[in-house]
């Protein structure tokens, strides 16, 4: 016999519905409207910066190089192409993707390039994927992963792809596999003996990217450093977490050299127009470049890279773009590149920068703005999805609008 009455929801369904209703009611986005520090700060986006770029000698139109560099954790072509497409969408112009890099060899930086036309200005976008550098070392931790991460693909591993044999709680497993083994390991590798190798690779990627703008006839037979000197265009850096330390350490290291390398490093430095940071980790990573205070021998020379004889400063931004920059390039104080640092307070791997200076009772000697954002809702005031909190900056419309159009967001482009 057919039951004419609808079935009553079971207890599990009622509990689930009630839970979802409570969670929905308890979700909030603390920084639905981004908050700037200082609150009245003004800064330009890529549109305004590109509009000021002059036409370089021998060029038909003004150009601006935009470098996008990721931080710790595995990143690949999807990340690079996604960043370029989202940036193009924010700029209101299509991206013309250029030939992708050769996948072989895998253990080198891969540069994904595109051109975005902004009226009579051309953006040359370079998304640099450096995950292949650290992957061979991170394989040594794969035996300890319950659910294998991207760095532990059995099809590409050179070590034995062992299964983890013990019981581990699901959440603990995710933290161990994805946070420690896949992400934090990158920072440890960089701060250790591989730092010089990683910096040389980053320097090569930066200089090659700048060199390709030079006429082919001029590049013939020249090193990337020498060819890059023909590129007069300004540049904007968009860097995340560990990537910000890598990029500026690489420039500092280049500047310390003689000959074409030193000249190329100073050209990168001098042509930097604006810096956008996401999930900034300089306060954390800078701890590794300091001696313990107040101990005997603490004034001895700091450890150096084997790529140069220059110690790395704990604060590469102040070192590059502070008093030294003004003296080196005879700049006025307001001519220094500005730094805009986006940070979600629930991102456990991000540190605002202005508080970093206040705690040390100093003022940054370069223009600095912290922009506090929310990359995802907070549930019941207890937590925000950690993956979205740290990795959600490229998909956050507020972040993209300010990178593209400056402090007024979309309004800055109108």
Automatic annotation (TrEMBL):
Keyword Signal assigned: yes
PROSITE patterns: PROKAR_LIPOPROTEIN (PS51257)
Entry annotated with the keyword Signal: yes
Keywords: Signal
Signal peptide start and end residues: 1-24
Top-level taxon of the source organism: Bacteria
Stated name of the protein: Uncharacterized protein
